[in-house]
């Protein structure tokens, strides 16, 4: 199980990131990306620290974090599987593929397996429209998903 950092540790590491990036034009997104890189997610304790440092409201920071689906509010599993939910993939059987993946892993989108092996996330285009349906496992794209490739993905996750 991944240990979540204590609140004061989150605040000090967050301030260090902010100090490095607040001079950028429009620093909120780069700061959030760096915080997620640092912690594996965007801890709720970081949001008021960011808001105060950038002189924006807590609601603005929260709104950005919840608007963009790539930000997580909890640690991800050891693997992250992103399944394309865009129209091209849907037209090539993506709904059935997504259902098979969810069934095989025993989790839904935006969930992490109880054994922390995988987090399943929807993504709205991987740029593999010609090879749809597609997914991405730990940053590696996989096109032309079918039952055999789903089996390979599940085996990789379970290792």
TrEMBL record:
A Pfam family cross-referenced in the UniProt record is 2Fe-2S_thioredx
Cofactor(s) for this protein?
[2Fe-2S] cluster
Residues annotated as binding [2Fe-2S] cluster are 84, 89, 125, 129
A GO molecular-function annotation = metal ion binding
Q: Which residues form a coiled coil?
A: none
Q: Which reaction does it catalyse?
A: a quinone + NADH + 5 H(+)(in) = a quinol + NAD(+) + 4 H(+)(out)
Q: Which SUPFAM superfamilies match?
A: Thioredoxin-like
Keyword list (alphabetical) reads:
2Fe-2S, Iron, Iron-sulfur, Metal-binding
**UniProt KW Metal-binding keyword:** yes
Asked whether the UniProt record includes Iron-sulfur among its keywords, one would answer yes
Record-linked Gene3D superfamilies = Glutaredoxin (3.40.30.10), NADH-quinone oxidoreductase subunit E (1.10.10.1590)
* Cofactor mode of binding and number, as noted: Binds 1 [2Fe-2S] cluster.
> What does the sequence similarity comment in the record state about its family?
Belongs to the complex I 24 kDa subunit family.
What name is this protein filed under?
Formate dehydrogenase subunit gamma
């Amino acid at each position: 199980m991944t240990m979540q950092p204590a609140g004061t540790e989150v605040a000090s590491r967050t301030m260090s990131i902010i100090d490095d990036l607040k001079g950028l034009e429009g620093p909120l997104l780069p700061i959030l990306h760096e915080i997620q890189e640092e912690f594996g997610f965007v801890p709720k304790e970081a949001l008021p620290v960011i808001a105060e440092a950038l002189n924006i409201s807590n609601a603005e920071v929260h709104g950005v974090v919840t608007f963009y689906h790539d930000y997580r509010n909890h640690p991800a599993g050891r693997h992250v599987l992103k399944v394309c939910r865009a129209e091209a993939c849907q037209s090539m059987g993506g709904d059935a593929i997504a259902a098979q993946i969810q069934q095989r892993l025993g989790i839904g989108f935006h969930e992490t397996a109880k054994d922390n092996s995988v987090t399943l996330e929807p993504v709205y285009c991987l740029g593999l429209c010609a090879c749809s349906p597609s997914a991405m496992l730990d940053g590696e794209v996989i096109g032309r998903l079918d039952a055999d490739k789903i089996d390979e993905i599940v085996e990789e996750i379970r290792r």
